[in-house]
Structure formats: structure tokens, C-alpha cells
């Protein structure tokens, strides 16, 4: 069927939806965009400028059910009435990633996992770009893949992909796929089944062939459990934090600073990559770096190029980000740590004594797993939240000093006064931000502003 005889409906008019609409128009399709909510002004302007018809605050089923195929936002669940109606009519539904991939011959490096996707995606992109590869960045981060494919000026794209985006692929084919971890998340979208959630993550490998590569974390129990049942023809490249005789590892750490790499390509000899100049800290970031380094090596980036690029990498904000060093006290913003697991990684990764700022909207947290680390590493805890009772109960008696406040400025001042030279003041909240802040970004920005406003004399133990 000729392209101009087809009619494509886009559900959702944010970054991915508007990009898909622009690409569909560029390829000669009839296009209609429908959003159940309000469309942000910048996206309305893009659609209007392109002359693409759209609606907001409703889904007009009479228009939508005329579609030859539908491109849907990853945020729309299967149980939404509009999706149910489309399924009943057997109208194909795809993700923006699937649609965009039809119109480029670029190679995809696709990254998924419950945690660490953004850091690993940004780092992989940085390693490839610094080595001179013609690479774009898309998916959950950066700009719409579909909109970039209109000009199609990149030879490679590094993509951050959620399970929701992978749910609606058919032929999407990554050259290199990376699976970082599988831990319970968004299970309401998967009938509260870990197996169904894991299947969604493993769809990243579904169309890979003999010339493709699957990089995965051999230390993750759920990957180990569910990957065994997945049929794969790609080269499998497991990595680990340690040498493991039970795996033929593509990468593992000989020590804290050295990743040993053995690629299943042309029987290459093992090589080593030093991560000692990387600003990333913590075991989870060792895993993220291993995945990104293996992807870069497959793409032909040399160990020397990787080591140079690691030193210049800047992570996304609010992820174990050094804000300031004052009187030999480091102030670190980890506001993105909105659950216990993320905060555990932060405490585990920091080697200095810690004054810890935590708290916020508790999401049913169980602090048991983090208590031993807190006892070992935390000299003081500042509870920053509207209701700190659960946090205080969990750590009173386990941390030498526990205080509380509902002011970020006061929390930072108290922490600075309690810290000694050589310590770290760590904002790693364990909780959502909505009790006192707009979001985790607002919380991190307020922390940084309060830290920057500290005078040297406000550290009680300044020298």
C-alpha cells in the first residue's frame, strides 16, 4: 500500500508523539494527533506550524478507529478505553521507537533496566561521541528519535528505553542491547507479575541476530532467572563486579579501578580499562560503567579513548553529584534517590563518614536493608520531611545523632555544623519529594542553593 493512502493516528502529544507525527507527515502519511489531556504550548506550536491536525482533552474514537495504524505514547496503559477499542478492531499499535526505526539504517545501541538507564545511556553516548562516532541520543532522554530520523544524519543512536516503549515494538532491531537489572517496578502495568515485567525488558533482544550483541548484568538474579527462558541468537556478553568461574564473562572488575574486557569478536585478546578517573561512585555505577564500556568496545572505541572520555563525563543532575567542597567536606546531591534501594547504593558507594539528609513522602518504605549500612557509615541523620516519625523510628539508636527539620536551608546548616573535615554531607532522600518540594529536581536545586550559600564559618569544625 502506498504511504499516502495510509492514515496514522498518534496518541499522546509530548516529545515522542509530536516527533512521530512530524515523521509520519514527512513520509507522506495522513496524520491525526489525539491527547486525552492538555497539550503543552511548545508542542501545540510545532503541530500547528506543520499543519498537522490535533485534538486535546479528549479522544475522538470515530476519528481514531479509522487509523491504518496507531503510534501511542508509552504512558498510555493497555487498560485505557481507547487502547481497548483499538485492540477490538485489530488496529496495529506501535511505539514511536518502532515507527522511527523503519526509516533509518543507523545502528541502535539500546539500553534498558529498572535502574541506571539514564546514567548508562548518557555515558555510552559520551564514550561514542568523544571517540568521533556520528551518534545521536534519543528515547526516554534527549529528543524524539522519530523527529531526528526525519533528517537522519547519524550513523548510530544511543537509546534509553523503558519497558513501556518495548511493549509496542515489532521489528525494532538493536545492534547492541544492554540490560542492567530487573527489580520490581511498574508492576501495575504487568498484572503484578514479575515474569511479565521481565518479558517486557527482554523484548529488547527479540529481533537481534547473529551479528548483534546482548550485554547484561550477570549479578542480577532476575536477569539470570528470566533470561534463561528467552530465545537469543545474538552474542551474549555478561558482565560482573567480580571474576566468576560460572560465566564466560565479557567484562569483570579485577579491582576497584580496573575492568577486564574480553569481547567475543575475532578472538580479540583481553584488554583492560581503568575507571580511576571517572567521577561516578558506587557499585551500581561500576555496573553502569561496565555495560557502557563493553558497548563502546564493541563499537570500536579503544581502551585509551574510553579512559580519556570517562574523566570528562558529567552525569545527569541529582545523581550522586558533587555540588561543593568546603573545609574538606564534600556536599553531594543524590535527590534522584527516591527509594531505599537507590539510597542504599549511595551509602554503599561513599567511603567517607556521612552526614545524611533523608526523608520526604514515604512510599511504604522498608528501611531494614539499609540499617546496617547506616550503622556502619552514618554519623548523623537529618530527617527532612513533613512527617519524619517512620524514619526516626528506623534509625534512632542506630545512628549516633538524629535531628529533623522541614527546611532545606536548615537541614544543610545542621549537616554542615555536624560534619568534620573528610566527611560527606549526602542528600539521598529514600523518599519522594512531594511533601515539601515540587519534584526531585526542585529538591536537588534547593539543596545546591543552600550549600552554595554556606559561609566557610558555618562548618562548626572548620579549620
From TrEMBL:
Q: Which domain of life is it from?
A: Bacteria
Q: Which residues form the Mur ligase C-terminal domain?
A: 318-430
Main EC class the enzyme belongs to: ligase
Q: Does the keyword Cell wall biogenesis/degradation apply?
A: yes
Give the main location: cytoplasm
Residues in domain Mur ligase central? 111-296
Q: Which reaction does it catalyse?
A: UDP-N-acetyl-alpha-D-muramoyl-L-alanine + D-glutamate + ATP = UDP-N-acetyl-alpha-D-muramoyl-L-alanyl-D-glutamate + ADP + phosphate + H(+)
Q: Which parts of the sequence bind ATP?
A: 113-119
Q: Which UniProt keywords apply?
A: ATP-binding, Cell cycle, Cell division, Cell shape, Cell wall biogenesis/degradation, Cytoplasm, Ligase, Nucleotide-binding, Peptidoglycan synthesis
A single Gene Ontology molecular function, please?
ligase activity
What is this protein's name? UDP-N-acetylmuramoylalanine--D-glutamate ligase
Primary gene name? murD
Amino acid at each position: 500500500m502506498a504511504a499516502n493512502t495510509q492514515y496514522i493516528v498518534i496518541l499522546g502529544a509530548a516529545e515522542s508523539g509530536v516527533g512521530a507525527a512530524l515523521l509520519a507527515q514527512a513520509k507522506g502519511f495522513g496524520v491525526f494527533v489525539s491527547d486525552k489531556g492538555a497539550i503543552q504550548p511548545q508542542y501545540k506550536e510545532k503541530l500547528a506550524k506543520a499543519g498537522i491536525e490535533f485534538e486535546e482533552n479528549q479522544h475522538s474514537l470515530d476519528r481514531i478507529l479509522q487509523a491504518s495504524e496507531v503510534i501511542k505514547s508509552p504512558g498510555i496503559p493497555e487498560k485505557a478505553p481507547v487502547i481497548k477499542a483499538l485492540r477490538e478492531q485489530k488496529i496495529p499499535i506501535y511505539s514511536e521507537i518502532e515507527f522511527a526505526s523503519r526509516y533509518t539504517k543507523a545502528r541502535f545501541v539500546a539500553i534498558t533496566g529498572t535502574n541506571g538507564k539514564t546514567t548508562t545511556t548518557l555515558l555510552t553516548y559520551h564514550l561514542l561521541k568523544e571517540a568521533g562516532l556520528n551518534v545521536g541520543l534519543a528515547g526516554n532522554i534527549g529528543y524524539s528519535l522519530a523527529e531526528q530520523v526525519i533528517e537522519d544524519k547519524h550513523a548510530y543512536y544511543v537509546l534509553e528505553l523503558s519497558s513501556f516503549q518495548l511493549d509496542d515494538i515489532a521489528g525494532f532491531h538493536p545492534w547492541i542491547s544492554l540490560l542492567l537489572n530487573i527489580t520490581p517496578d511498574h508492576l501495575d502495568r504487568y498484572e503484578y507479575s514479575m515474569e511479565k515485567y521481565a518479558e517486557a525488558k527482554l523484548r529488547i533482544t527479540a529481533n537481534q541476530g547473529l551479528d548483534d550483541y546482548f550485554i547484561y548484568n550477570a549479578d542480577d538474579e532476575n536477569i539470570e532467572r528470566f533470561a534463561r527462558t528467552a530465545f537469543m541468537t545474538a552474542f551474549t556478553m555478561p558482565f560482573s563486579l567480580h571474576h566468576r568461574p560460572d560465566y564466560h564473562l565479557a567484562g569483570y572488575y579485577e579491582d576497584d579501578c580496573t575492568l577486564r574486557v574480553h569481547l567475543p569478536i575475532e578472538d580479540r585478546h583481553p584488554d583492560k580499562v581503568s575507571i580511576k578517573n571517572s567521577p561516578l561512585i558506587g557499585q551500581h555505577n561500576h555496573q553502569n560503567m561496565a555495560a557502557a564500556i563493553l558497548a563502546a568496545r564493541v563499537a570500536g572505541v579503544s581502551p585509551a579513548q574510553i579512559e580519556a572520555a570517562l574523566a570528562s563525563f558529567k552525569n545527569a543532575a541529582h545523581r550522586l553529584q558533587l555540588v561543593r567542597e568546603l573545609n574538606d567536606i564534600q556536599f553531594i546531591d543524590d535527590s534522584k534517590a527516591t527509594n531505599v534501594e537507590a539510597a542504599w547504593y549511595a551509602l554503599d558507594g561513599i567511603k567517607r563518614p556521612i552526614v545524611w539528609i533523608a526523608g520526604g513522602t514515604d512510599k511504604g518504605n522498608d528501611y531494614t536493608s539499609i540499617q546496617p549500612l547506616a550503622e556502619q557509615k552514618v554519623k548523623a541523620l537529618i530527617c527532612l520531611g513533613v512527617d519524619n516519625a517512620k524514619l526516626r523510628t528506623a534509625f534512632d539508636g542506630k545512628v549516633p545523632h538524629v535531628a529533623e527539620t522541614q527546611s532545606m536551608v536548615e537541614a544543610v546548616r545542621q549537616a554542615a555544623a555536624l560534619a568534620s573535615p573528610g566527611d560527606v554531607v549526602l542528600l539521598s532522600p529514600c523518599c519522594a519529594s512531594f511533601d515539601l518540594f515540587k519534584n526531585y529536581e526542585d529538591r536537588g536545586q534547593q539543596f545546591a542553593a543552600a550549600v552554595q550559600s554556606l559561609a566557610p564559618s558555618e562548618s562548626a569544625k572548620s579549620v
